[in-house]
Design brief:
single chain, 234 residues, alpha+beta, Aminopeptidase, binds coenzyme A
């Protein structure tokens, strides 16, 4: 058959039914529900809404930067493209040996935060790490603990992780106390540049045994995991 343009026959529009994207990329069908939140990877339209919320509601101020980069302080017209490129990059670079689930955190259907679940060589090491943020006006209401618990439920109870690592800038009490609430223990410190500010990176580690002792008792439900398992390398 010729490979010229004339060989292309467009599929009829009705050949593309709902769910095609999650058939192609099962991670789009994965969701975690907690009493107040839903975690799932955002569609491109939802990335626009997420970026809008970062610009309008901000994540942190300029005095103490909690992240290694300054992306959340970028100019309002630069944030949306940066957010979109970050999420597209997570999809594009995914392999079974190295993956990063960029969950958006939805409250009442609106994307208001982010909860990542990250692993390298998970099939062998069974170790995950994470990162998270919420728009500033929703911080301090227990949502950070709920989204971390959602991520840990997926990692420990459904993927078979045996340890979860985290870190936060020393002084970032809300982040460190989210970790303590889940059972993480101190795991060392190191000097680090937080968006150009020198600070101390406080490292934390949670074992599966400690998770089982500290896990919250409220229901956390996971949907759409089975088709994703090969993508997680298990
Ligand atoms: C870190 C973050 C996700 C935590 O989520 P949150 O919803 O604000 O935290 P929660 O309300 O669940 O509170 C968690 C714990 O921190 C405590 N806490 C919350 N805000 C606090 C504050 N400003 N100072 C001290 N403690 C605080 C809570 O009392 C709770 O502790 P407890 O379990 O002992 O009662 C959120 O604050 C955030 O997005 N911060 C900016 C970005 C950031 O720092 N990300 C993490 C980078 S490592």
């Amino acid at each position: 058959m010729s490979c010229g343009v004339n060989a292309f026959v467009a599929a009829p529009a009705d050949a593309y039914g709902p769910g095609m994207l999650k058939d192609l990329w099962p991670i789009f069908g994965l969701s975690i529900s907690t009493p107040r939140l839903e975690l799932r990877v955002p569609t491109d339209d939802e990335l626009v809404a997420l970026a809008h919320n970062i610009v309008e509601r901000r994540i942190h101020g300029t005095e103490i930067i909690p992240f290694l980069g300054q992306w959340a302080l970028a100019e309002p017209d630069e944030v949306p493209m940066g957010v979109a490129q970050h999420h597209w990059g997570l999809r594009a670079s995914w392999t079974a040996e190295s993956w990063n689930v960029g969950f958006a955190v939805f409250l009442d259907g609106e994307p208001v935060g982010s909860q990542n679940l990250i692993a390298k060589d998970f099939a062998t090491l069974r170790s995950v790490s994470s990162g998270s943020w919420l728009v500033s006006d929703l911080q301090g209401q227990g949502l950070g603990k709920e989204m971390r618990a959602a991520m840990l439920t997926l990692a420990f109870d459904h993927l078979g992780a045996v340890e979860a690592l985290s870190s936060a800038r020393l002084g970032n009490e809300s982040s460190i106390r989210v970790s303590y609430a889940m059972g993480y223990e101190d795991n060392g410190q190191a000097r680090e540049s937080f968006g150009g500010q020198i600070g101390v990176d406080h490292r934390l580690r949670l074992t599966v045994e400690r998770w089982q002792q500290h896990r919250p008792t409220y229901p956390i439900e996971i949907r759409g995991l089975d088709p994703c398992l090969p993508l997680f390398g298990i």
